[in-house]
Automatic annotation (TrEMBL):
Pfam families registered for this protein in UniProt: Carb_kinase
Catalytic EC class: lyase
Gene3D superfamilies, sorted: 3.40.1190.20
Full protein name: ATP-dependent (S)-NAD(P)H-hydrate dehydratase
Species of provenance: Brassica napus (Rape)
NCBIfam families according to UniProt: yjeF_cterm (TIGR00196)
Lineage: Eukaryota, Viridiplantae, Streptophyta, Embryophyta, Tracheophyta
Obligatory cofactor(s): Mg(2+)
């Protein structure tokens, strides 16, 4: 809609600023174009598509292609994608949750389950764990992360018991313990979501940067959101050139990334080009820039998802998105190894896509499309009182409407 208005107002502006010689061919052509645009709804989308450098993704087709069918014979942790390929895991892990924030990791993890993950883990701090567990018995919660204040507490205890100050070596021991707790699970995860409700404690973020290195070593994809983006913006090398990394910045997080990486301010006039440059500069990671329209780029292509969502901007919708990206990305990754679905992919989505190259982009498109559908449905029901948990309740119905389970 914005594009439509932009096109029309740009043309109107240029006609009104043209010289008075109304006989000028250019002016006549422009006036004709404005009349045509205003009169004919059918020509408009074609023209807009032609003028826009970004193509609107067909999110519903992507959702249908990426979502695997359910097989009654499978056991937990095993999803049969076709007769030929069996996948053994649909497990997602969220790294996040601290004293201040317990909602964000819960929203991300429960959304992953509601969409179709078999198991959803949360690795959080010790104080956040009982709270998150109390929200839902469905989640597997690991109280393993440590914040600086717990280290200071250890330190105080040591001093009181007459021991010397907590040394760097001891600090490293705590860190190794944390990393070890995550590492023993790492290979089992299809995707991590790093950052929802993580907080910004320096010791904790240092541990999380090590967890990112571990994930990269094991080729586990990860979605970086919230405070994970705070960490990454200050240490871009953590994600640089890792093709299985997705960054999902909101308006503030995007601004910080652009300032840090491109050394300039966000330019809305060149939104797509700037996003493409940013993704390219970070070595081809995929960036999903959240906003009125979600823009997705891996430094090569730029796709947008503008399905109507909800005018309510309650906190936590980004967390639903990050958990959803993790699931759809995992499913899209499997397209590569499933001949039946790969064929379906070619028939339905072939334009501008290559299944071997873009599962990460497909995962982002599917997640964005589904969240927007669910937000719209929740808003229809709850209007001004719509909350994030209402949107989560609508994820199942929204997915069912697009690709029925049976
Ligand atoms: N129910 C829940 O549990 C939810 C929890 N959530 C969780 O909240 C976390 C932050 O996410 P968000 O979306 O508020 O971050 P964002 O837009 O960058 O910041 C807005 C402004 O706040 C400020 N600021 C932020 N953190 C700060 C800090 N530690 N200390 C000081 N300032 C801080 C920030 O300042 P600046 O960074 O610009 O200096 C900016 O001005 C993240 O973990 C997210 O997952 C959400 O997902 C919602 C639901
Ligand atoms: N102005 C808007 N109009 C419609 N949808 C929007 C708008 N802004 C964001 N969204 C949608 O809401 C979702 C969450 O984006 P948002 O910018 O709220 O993330 P966030 O700030 O990280 O959220 P959170 O509160 O979970 O941290 C995105 O999928 C995006 O498409
Ligand atoms: Mg957020």
């Amino acid at each position: 809609m914005l594009v439509k208005h932009g096109v029309i107002s740009a043309l109107t502006r240029s006609t009104s600023h043209s010289p008075s010689s109304s006989s000028s061919t250019v002016l006549r052509r422009q006036q004709f174009l404005v009349r045509t645009l205003c009169a004919s709804k059918t020509h408009l989308p074609k023209l807009i598509r032609a003028m826009s450098s970004t193509s609107e993704a067909d999110a519903e087709s992507v959702l249908r292609t990426v979502t695997p069918s359910l097989d009654p014979k499978r056991h937990k942790g095993q999803a049969v994608l076709s007769l030929l390929v069996t996948v053994t895991q649909w497990k997602i892990a969220v790294i996040g949750g601290c004293r201040e924030y317990t909602g964000a990791p819960y929203f991300a993890a429960i959304s992953a389950l509601k969409i179709g993950a078999d198991l959803s883990h949360v690795f959080c701090t010790k104080d956040a764990a009982p709270v998150i567990k109390s929200y839902s018995p469905e989640l597997i919660v690991h109280p393993v992360l440590e914040e600086s204040y717990t280290i200071s507490f250890h330190n105080l205890c040591l001093l009181l018991s007459g021991c010397s100050q907590f040394s760097e070596e001891e600090k490293r021991k705590v860190q190794d313990k944390v990393i070890g707790e995550v590492d023993k699970w790492m290979e089992r995860f299809d995707c991590l979501v790093i950052g929802p409700g993580l907080g910004r404690d320096p010791f904790l973020l240092e541990c999380v940067s090590k967890i990112m290195l571990l994930a990269k070593k094991s080729n586990v994809p990860f979605v970086v959101d919230g405070d994970g983006l705070f960490l990454v913006t200050n240490s871009i090398d953590l994600v640089k050139s890792y093709p299985l990394a997705v960054l999902t910045p909101n308006v503030n997080e995007y601004k910080r990334l652009v300032q840090k990486v491109l050394n300039c301010e966000v330019d809305e006039e060149k939104a797509e080009d700037q996003l493409r440059s940013l993704a390219k500069q970070i070595g081809g990671v995929t960036i999903l820039r959240k906003g009125k329209s979600d823009l997705i780029s891996n430094g090569e292509i730029v796709k947008s998802v503008s399905i109507y969502g909800s005018p309510r901007r309650c906190g936590g919708q980004g967390d639903i998105l990050s958990g959803s990206v993790a699931v759809f990305l995992s499913w899209a990754q499997q397209l590569k190894s499933d001949p039946e679905r790969k064929l379906l992919f070619y028939f339905t989505l072939s334009e501008n896509f290559s299944p071997s190259e873009s599962p990460v982009i497909l995962g982002c498109i599917a997640a964005s499309g589904l969240l927007r559908k669910a937000a719209s449905l929740a808003f229809t029901k709850h209007k001004r009182s719509t909350l994030t948990s209402d949107i989560i309740e609508c994820l199942g119905k929204s997915l069912e409407d697009i690709c029925p389970a049976s």
